[in-house]
């Protein structure tokens, strides 16, 4: 039995055109596989996971080496429960520590430990090489500018003013 697609969804919205559908599916494929490949490479070349790396990058780039947990969860686009579990696992390995917020008893910080700084410094060159190999070596500077322009245009809808 062959199903003939209808030209509109039940809500009246048009279906994606063949070109739109191809673009959307390629977008999904590339983003999933890029993250998967980079995560596997990172784990094989270092002692940390992709999630560890994401947390450590944010902490290591922070002027104080720490973040409010709620702000870090928002920055990573993770729910607080996921971040809390991640912090617990990383703290057991000496990568980060929790700190209380002296001026707000409800708030808490996560801070990078020296061991975390050492690990991120060791893992970063290989990760950057992977990003370069899987992305930037495959697209020229004009394509990079175009892609950046497109991504910024798409990202506007997800800014804080939209929450």
UniProtKB/TrEMBL annotation:
Entries under PROSITE patterns matching the protein: HTH_MARR_2
Entry-linked SMART domains: HTH_MARR (SM00347)
Highest taxon listed in the record's lineage: Bacteria
Alphabetical list of SUPFAM superfamilies matching this protein: Winged helix' DNA-binding domain
Keyword Nucleotidyltransferase appears in the UniProt entry: no
One MF annotation (Gene Ontology) recorded for this entry: DNA-binding transcription factor activity
GO biological process, one term: response to stress
InterPro entries named among the record's database cross-references: HTH_MarR-typ, MarR/SlyA-like, Transc_reg_Sar_Rot_HTH, WH-like_DNA-bd_sf, WH_DNA-bd_sf
Keywords: DNA-binding, Transcription, Transcription regulation
Name the UniProt record assigns to this protein: MarR family transcriptional regulator
